[in-house]
Amino acid sequence: MKNLEKIPSLKVEKTLGEKAVTALKTLGILNPDCKISREENYLFLPLNRKPSKTELEKLRTKLPKFEVAQYAFAERVEFQPKFVDLLSEKLPPHLLASLPQAIDFIGDIAVVEIPPELEKYKPVIGEALLKAHKRVSTALAKLGAVDGEFRVREFEPIAGVAKTSTVHREYGCVFYVDLAKAYFSPRLSYEHNRVASLVKEDETVLDMFTGVGPFAIHIANKHQKVHVYAIDKNPEAIRLLKKNMTANRVEAKITPILGDARQIVAERLRGSSDRVIMNLPERALEYVDVACQAIKPQGGIIHYYEFTSGSEPLEAAQKRLQQAVKQTGRKADEILSSRIVRGTAPFTWQVAVDARIK
User: Fold this and answer.
1) Best CA proximity match to 209, nearest among 300, 291, 313, 293
2) Region class of 17: left (phi > 0), else alpha (psi between -120 and 50), else beta
3) Residue 157 belongs to a domain with what CATH number?
């Protein structure tokens, strides 16, 4: 590993390491390209920039003692060079540039999107993935986009064990998933933890499109006195959610509900919630009225997700949300935060908007 030039870091006692990492990830200033370093009883956590005054104030509420210092970190070693090296003699040179750059690791499954020009090399690419990543036992290729009422896609096994189910772990939580039967994305792990960290004790939360329950499980795992209503119309998603509730020992904090969120809220959850999670980016805008019905009369918070494009995606998403809330007779009187979650296509992003509803 080569040494980098000195960059900003957060120096903390090693006993505060986990809290510090969580706080920095929540603020979005932890540098993932560098390896955390340890010297005696202290950890140096790499930052992607110097924290602002506001960010420092937020850190002080989480950490009793820390110091911002310059530190020369070792660069984190990534898998990509090894993966490419394994294929450099098995693929024509002009096709190496077409190798998938984005690889999702879900439990012991690696998922890739293989372009048409590499179609006949799928088994070779799959075997290279297994060799490059010793914990991976299955390589799957995506067949088409997420589609249908239950937001699932088809996969083709290209190496290893032919399966779509696995056990995935993130931020101390365990998830049983079946990629062919219920939607799950490891790319949202930061969002799962971020939203869970914002929840307050004694809150009632509505997870309108829960899937296998990553938001609900994280929230229940982090807090002693919360209750989450977790809705999904996919029976397989609810089955896996219940399994995950048991695996994480949070059965008492989550009520799983099979059905459509619009009908469920109208029948039994009107005015019930302090906070509503709307992770259905394809159609969340259609359900803003339902979220506003679920928020308590005195107000609450909506975590809204959508796919958007254009030169100002965050501003556009905020305006759409505010207008949709206004049409319900309520008001999104404060945008608490907005961020680009991930790119989904050229000039298209999934964005998150947190809004306070009055």
Assistant:
1) 291
2) alpha
3) 3.30.300.110
Domain of residue 102, residue span: 80-163
355/233 Cα distance (integer angstroms): 25
Q: Count the domains in the chain.
A: 3
Is there a domain that residue 122 lies in?
yes
Whether residue 177 lies inside any domain: the answer is no
Q: Which residues contact 46 (CB under 8 A, 6 or more apart)?
A: 7, 8, 9, 30, 31, 33, 34, 35, 36, 71, 73
Are 321 and 339 contained in the same domain? yes
Q: CATH no. for residue 34?
A: 3.30.70.2580
**Where does 171-299 show beta strands of DSSP type E?**
173-178, 204-207, 227-232, 254-258, 275-278
pTM: 0.75
pLDDT tens-digit series, residues 59-101: 999 898 999 988 888 766 544 447 888 888 889 888 888 888 7
